[in-house]
Amino acid sequence: MESDRKRSTLRRIARRAMIERGFLPDFSRASLAEIDGMRATAAGNPGWRRDMRDLPWASIDNDDSRDLDQLTVAVTMPEGTVKILVAVADVDALVRQGKAVDDHARHNTTSVYTAAEIFPMLPEKLSTDLTSLGYREDRPAIIIEMVFGEDGSLRSSDLYGAMVRNCAKLAYNSVAAWLEGNGPAPAPIADVEGLAGNLRIQDRVAQQLKAFRHEHGALDLETIEARPVFDGDVIRDLETERRNRAKELIEDFMIAANGVTARYLKARKYPSLRRVVRSPKRWERIVEVASRYGATLPPDPDPKALAQFLALRKTADPVRFPDLSLTIIKLMGAGEYVPEFPEETAPGHFGLAVRNYAHSTAPNRRYPDLITQRLLKAALTGSPMPYGRDELVELGRHCTEKENDANKVERLVGKSAAAMLLAPRTGERFDAIVTGAADKGTWVRLLHPPVEGKLVQGFKGADVGERLLVQLVHTDVERGYIDFKKVD
């Protein structure tokens, strides 16, 4: 059938792209054999874990997520403070360093989510079962404890191991609709006594955290992410995903938890693998973009000034704010993983306006988080460093490279899916925004559907952030090419 052929074409393109970018799309026999005899870590070991299974832990993730990396819960404290607990799946309890499963994860470094197929970093028996914080499953976790004041400031923090149990598996969109007053409470919330109130407290604290971070220069960026919508095996549309209150709740807690993790390792003189975004590569262009809106930014990179400008634009024009956000993200440049060793200071994260930031909350999906977990467990138990200095430097470089490769694979398959969707519309005109301008080419993204392609005619003088009217002139599903020309 035609629909089966199209879906299989995308899968073939995805697997080809994985191999071309140096990924292993399949697990080796050795790694699959290694997990055959694995079982979930028992509740009773080891002795350094607490028993926290009685708390109303809940996961909030995508509707179809099964690789659940974290749970959250709130505990009210005296004088208006609130203790937020983030439980991160103890993946290292089963994925041992140097074994076959770890070798595969270390090679790929990340799960790759394409429009056709998901290529998990860990075998599904682990990532969606034994190392996932699944519903009503007893699982070991690393607990990141944070006490916040009413203004969103961090008053104290701690880390330790514990056994936890997920009381409710929740999804972003339904939780957000409830929090925002646009829908009823999801059924799992009503099934757990006190969970509704607990989530309201978490939401309030998350909003305080967001406001506190933005006051100190964190950038409030909002981009449009598109996911193919299939009717059987036929692509019918590209659905846009936007931020909402539930996603912000998890995002703000994870940012805070990652900061606590980095500071915990630094205080105990253990190295850490930091996630850094250096000062924007094209700040002068950001200044120029801001001037179009009547705003004046300082000549040198200033996250607080940029944050204030973005906040004003979001209020003034929320519909077009994602387009401005995309422009700023493109001009800031990509992030990277850089190790920080005792007595040294790594660069900070410009977009988050923080100096201490280590990815630690998604060890089922990202290898840097698994590296960080091993460093944390060594610090918690006083064990030797699991990685040497040169090894950590090389791992940071490798993880950065493979993350960039994963983004390219995902974009390529997404473009092939988009080319498949747009092929019948060759010759039509669309409103677009310039998303990239360099010697190797100029790229634009349509406002709807949110598809990115190359501007092959009329690109002279076009720069990031400019709005254009374009015409679709060519598509190539196999190569993921979507070509436009500028219409005067």
Question: What topology, given as strand order, has the largest sheet?
Answer: 1-8-7-4-3
Could you list the spans in which at least 5 consecutive residues all have pLDDT below 50? none
Number of helices: 13
| Share in β-strands | 15-25%
What does the model show?
The chain folds into three domains: 2-277 and 336-417, no CATH class; 283-332, no CATH class; 426-486, OB fold (Dihydrolipoamide Acetyltransferase, E2P) (Beta Barrel), CATH 2.40.50. Helices cover 38% and strands 24% of the residues. The chain contains 13 helices and 18 strands. Helix 1 packs antiparallel against helix 13 (389-422) and helix 2 (29-36) crosses helix 3. It is globular, with a radius of gyration of 23 Å.
Q: How would you summarize the topology of this molecule?
A:
Elements: H1 2-20, H2 29-36, E1 49-51, E2 58-61, E3 70-76, E4 82-89, H3 100-108, E5 112-113, E6 118-119, H4 124-130, E7 138-148, E8 154-165, E9 168-171, H5 172-179, H6 187-190, H7 195-215, E10 225-231, E11 234-241, H8 245-267, E12 272-276, H9 283-292, H10 303-316, H11 321-332, E13 336-340, H12 367-381, H13 389-422, E14 429-438, E15 441-446, E16 452-457, E17 467-476, E18 481-486
Parallel strand pairs: 1-8, 2-9, 16-18
Antiparallel strand pairs: 3-4, 4-7, 5-6, 7-8, 10-11, 12-13, 14-15, 14-17, 15-16, 17-18
Helix pairs in contact: 1-13, 2-3, 7-8
